[in-house]
Write a sequence for this structure.
């Protein structure tokens, strides 16, 4: 029998392929094409609309960095809002902080259901935690209408195509800013700069119009091909990159009793150190109109 390969459809000029050993789910949700398959190296792999979203082998590189960096930096988080995150990885990591409650807004309920069934290690029971309030609705609508305020907002979106496209607009970020508590922090995924530099540049530019302390920081996820993965930070708190900040992060990390595979206080600080070609993606003259409060 001829082996079947998954060929990612994200870029017109570049492609990665992953061998499919076994298909666990394949079909159309109400919003997108979905596929979960098993690969002997990466374990179970989730793809949406032909693009790799996460794998069991390298998911921690993304989920830990998009979650623990803002929570540790804040230092007193009580409430977290996750927009997207249907695989459950960010929810899992946020709930590892004992005094945190999480509201998760996911558009596609089928993604949650199929990940709970076929990739349960990603959520590790997080969907059943009483501190998790999971709602199936439009995240753009939620942040535009809610009266709730959150200490940290994490936008765990797909790429800015299909259902995820609206989660990269100026209007959406402005509504997120309004939903933050005083000294709150917003973090959003911003693509792989070597192949998606416009995504990182545009996200930073839009957030710089709303926040006094925007920054890019980096992780590296093997199946997000192209090298560094960019995350964008926005808020009024500093990112703990100073020696005193690293010491504070280390104390908070120890107090939380986290056992991680990627994140640690040194990585926290180092992730904000950018290669020059990525640093140049940040506009130098963007207008700062106001903070979130």
């Amino acid at each position: 029998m001829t082996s079947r390969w998954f060929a990612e459809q994200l870029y017109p000029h570049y492609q990665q392929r992953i061998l499919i050993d076994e298909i666990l789910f394949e079909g159309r949700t109400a919003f997108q094409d979905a596929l979960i398959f098993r690969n002997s190296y990466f374990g179970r792999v989730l793809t949406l609309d032909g693009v790799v979203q996460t794998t069991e082998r390298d998911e921690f590189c993304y989920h830990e960095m998009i979650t623990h960096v803002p929570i540790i930096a804040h230092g007193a988080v009580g409430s977290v809002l996750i927009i997207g995150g249907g695989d459950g990885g960010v929810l899992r990591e946020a709930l590892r902080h004992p005094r945190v409650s999480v509201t998760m807004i996911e558009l596609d309920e089928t993604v949650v259901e199929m990940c709970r069934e076929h990739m349960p290690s990603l959520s590790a029971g997080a969907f059943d935690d009483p501190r998790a309030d999971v709602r199936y609705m439009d995240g753009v609508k939620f942040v535009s209408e809610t009266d709730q305020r959150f200490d940290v907002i994490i936008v765990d979106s797909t790429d800015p195509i299909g259902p995820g496209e609206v989660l990269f607009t100026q209007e959406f970020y402005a509504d997120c800013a309004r939903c933050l508590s005083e000294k709150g922090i917003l973090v959003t995924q911003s693509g792989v700069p070597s192949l998606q530099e416009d995504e990182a540049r545009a996200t930073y530019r839009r957030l710089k119009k709303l926040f006094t302390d925007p920054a890019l920081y980096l992780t590296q996820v093997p199946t997000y091909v192209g090298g560094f993965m960019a995350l964008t930070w926005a808020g009024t708190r500093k990112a703990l990159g100073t020696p005193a900040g690293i010491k504070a992060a280390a104390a908070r990390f120890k107090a939380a009793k986290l056992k991680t595979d990627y994140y640690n206080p040194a990585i926290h600080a180092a992730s904000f150190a950018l290669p020059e070609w990525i640093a140049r993606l940040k506009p130098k003259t963007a207008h700062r109109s106001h903070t979130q409060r």
User: Anything to note?
Assistant: The chain has two domains: 4-55, 59-279. The chain is about 30% helix and 30% strand. Residues 91 and 126 are 6 Å apart (CA to CA). The first helix runs from residue 59 to 74.
